[in-house]
Design goal:
Layout lengths: L15 H4 L4 H16 L7 E5 L7 H14 L4 E5 L18 H6 L5 H4 L1 E2 L5 E4 L8 H5 L2 H13 L2 E5 L8 H6 L4 E7 L5 H13 L4 E7 L8 E4 L1
Parallel strand pairs: 1-5, 1-6, 2-4, 2-5, 6-7
Antiparallel strand pairs: 3-4, 7-8
Helix pairs in contact: 2-3
Length: 228
């Protein structure tokens, strides 16, 4: 019986930075990239986790498009799907066929088999792969820590998409590995209470918050609004 993959449908047209790099939304992502670069002058944000308080905030869309604009900057960039429960990154990059992070952490494949090149120059993807029955244990394992250290020597920029931080412990675990975290909120959807809770949860585990991004921001021309 073939193992199930953790999936949810994503419209690959949402990878706007690849499809239409001259669009206003693509420019929003480049502005966010620039702000991240400058905010990390004293402490470089080489590895970034992207999460949200709850599902349907658009964190995976943000992760994928940020990875593209970092790659377009000329940086060797790795996008990791750290959501071993309900992955989506591979739907932005249908050319990626790897069984991914779960298979790598359980010793089924080697790193060279797990990471794949995308159609975007300088951009590589490590998909989540099969549904795991113990994702938190895998992500907190010694093998994951060793893998991440190795990846940091191989790529100039790493972006990790994770499950919502208020839903499960996975994002809290990953936050201990990365240089900083981006919180994605959805306008008219994320409550102030959940936004504050997500900040508090990250602070409890000493996670560094780089910025927050307000998705579906309707009051300005920006679809994505960057905030400190």
């Amino acid at each position: 019986m073939k193992p199930r993959t953790a999936t949810k449908k994503i419209n690959k047209n949402k990878l706007i930075t690849k499809i239409n790099p001259k669009s206003l939304v693509s420019e929003d992502f480049r502005v966010i990239r620039t702000n991240i670069d400058y905010s990390g002058i004293d402490s470089q944000y080489k590895s970034i986790m992207v999460t949200s308080p709850e599902p349907n905030c658009g964190k995976s869309v943000v992760s994928a498009n940020l990875a593209v604009v970092f790659a377009q900057q000329g940086k060797s960039t790795l996008l990791i799907d750290g959501d071993l429960r309900k992955s989506s990154v591979q739907y932005f990059f249908p050319e990626v066929k790897s069984v991914g992070l779960t298979a790598l952490l359980t010793g089924r494949i080697q790193l060279e088999e797990a990471v794949e090149e995308t159609e975007v120059k300088n951009l590589f993807v490590l998909p989540a792969g099969f549904i795991s029955t113990n994702p938190a244990e895998l992500l907190s394992s010694k093998k994951m820590k060793e893998l991440f250290k190795r990846l940091l020597t191989m790529y100039e920029q790493i972006i990790i998409d994770t499950p919502p931080i208020l839903a499960v412990a996975d994002a809290q675990i990953i936050s201990s590995l990365v240089d900083g975290t981006i919180l994605v909120f959805r306008s008219g959807y994320t409550s102030k209470t959940n936004a504050k809770k997500s900040v508090h949860v990250l602070q409890q585990v000493n996670g560094k918050i780089i910025c927050s991004i307000l998705n579906d921001h309707k009051n300005k021309k920006d679809a994505y609004y960057y905030g400190k």
